[in-house]
Amino acid sequence: MRRLIINADDFGLTQGVNRAIVEGHEHGVVSSATLMANGGAFEDAIQRAKSTPRLSVGCHVVLVDGLPVLPEGQTPTLSDKKAYDGRFHESLKSFVLRAVTGQINADEIEAEATAQIRKIQAAGVAVSHFDAHKHTHMFPPVLRPLLRAARACGISAVRNPFGPLHLSVLAKRPSLWKRYSTVTLLAPLGMAFQKSVANAGLFTPDGTVGIVATGALDVSLFESILAGLPEGTWELVCHPGYNDAELASVRTRLRESRAVELRILTSPEAREILARSGIQLISYRDLV
To answer: Distance (Å, rounded) from C-alpha 47 to C-alpha 57?
Structure first.
């Protein structure tokens, strides 16, 4: 049996992203979403989540390229000292280097993640799972405090950011070789990830697909990814949205690609591909 969760990231980023995620769920194949507690359109996302009860909503924990939910001064090792408002460092590479060399306080990660999850729960939305912005939770020094926060908040599932490497994607899009190479280099961390999650008593899918194709997804790549899906339970990461004026005002490399993904995820072809491949669409609620 092959089961697939299609999770839309960045819920709460902008109202256009929020609207697209709900449309992708109500008129397409999006089954879950992860909400940014520090997103500019957080309140709008909360209202949409409440009016869309079948959508499984998780927390998209942000530790890089954003503002903390905790009051200023409570995340000194996470925050950029050069920033006037205490925001996180923008560079993912810098964050990872500081995390793996012990320059980031694990207690701060746990406290900030707890604050983000609790903010969503306090707004009246049940949090079914969590993942991390830019997949920072794939690194053990970040994962461990995040798992502690999840357990404290009653969350029982987390994204597995590792998965099968589809050469067919690279064959169709050779321009993705850099991202493919990065994903390949990080793959050995997968075993430690699964062990940590199991020890914490949380559920996780067998892995994630589609990360290499982020920003480049089209119907052909969507079909290719699903055709190569192994037996088990997997997650497809997506980023639907509207490329509008509000999106132009936020920091993101994904702009027009969000609109393209929305068209794919709400197209008749998407459901036909799932049906033809014999893949069962589920949500994170079904997983736990």
So the answer is: 12
Tell me what the mean pLDDT of segment 244-249 comes to. Answer: 95
Quick one: how far is CA 147 from the chain centroid? 15
Angle in degrees, CA 37, 39, 44, rounded to 5: 90
Q: Is the pTM of this model over 0.70?
A: yes
Terminal CA-to-CA distance of the chain, rounded, Å? 17
Task: Please state, in angstroms and rounded to a whole number, the distance separating the CA atoms of residues 50 and 124.
Answer: 8
Give, as one character, the DSSP assignment of residue 89.
P
Q: Any residues with CB less than 8 A from the CB of 140 and at least 6 apart, and which?
A: 189, 192, 193, 196
DSSP sequence for 14-81: -HHHHHHHHHHHHSSS--EEEE-TT-TTHHHHHHHHHT-TTSEEEEEE--SSS--SSPTTS-TTTB-T
A 10 A CB-CB count for 268 gives: 8
> For residues 111 and 88, what is the distance between their CA atoms, to the nearest angstrom?
14
- Write the pLDDT tens digit of every residue in 147-158: 999 999 999 999
The dihedral region occupied by 230, where left means phi > 0, alpha psi between -120 and 50, and beta the remainder, is: beta
Closest CA to 264 of 22, 27, 18: 27
Domains and CATH numbers, the chain: 2-287 (3.20.20.370)
**Distances in Å between the alpha carbon of 179 and those of 162, 174, 221?**
13, 10, 15
Q: List pLDDT tens digits, range 45-91.
A: 999 999 999 999 999 999 999 999 999 889 999 998 887 788 998 89
Phi and psi dihedrals of 59, rounded to 5? -105, 125
How many Å apart are CA 52 and CA 35, to the nearest integer? 14
